[in-house]
# Entry
Amino acid sequence: MHASEPGPPGPPGPPELPEYAERVLDVAEHIPSGLVMTYGDIAEWLEEGGPRQVGRVMALYGGAVPWWRVVRADGALLPGSELRALEHYRAEGTPLREAGRATEGHLPRIDMRRARWNGET
# Structure
């Protein structure tokens, strides 16, 4: 084969990240340790999409960013990832509200009044 001849096609690279997903993940990466933003907060910050769109991006692509800092507005821990998230919250000093005895699973919630970040430095 000559240098000018193309070689066989290689394996396809990773799929290109949609522009909206890049923007969502960029916001998630900038949330300070110990603080959180809701799915809706991120959509509002970006002035595009809504909580469901942000949640979809985080579900598909959020593993490479601090996903535990993007939360539901009620402060409930992400179903299926509660214990992993709780480890991060405790390590980072994220304000939590301890669960009452009647709370299912007795898991704390994020204290949204104290932990919510408004996007300002």
The helical segments are 19-30, 39-46, 51-61, 82-92, 112-115. The two ends are 57 Å apart (CA to CA).
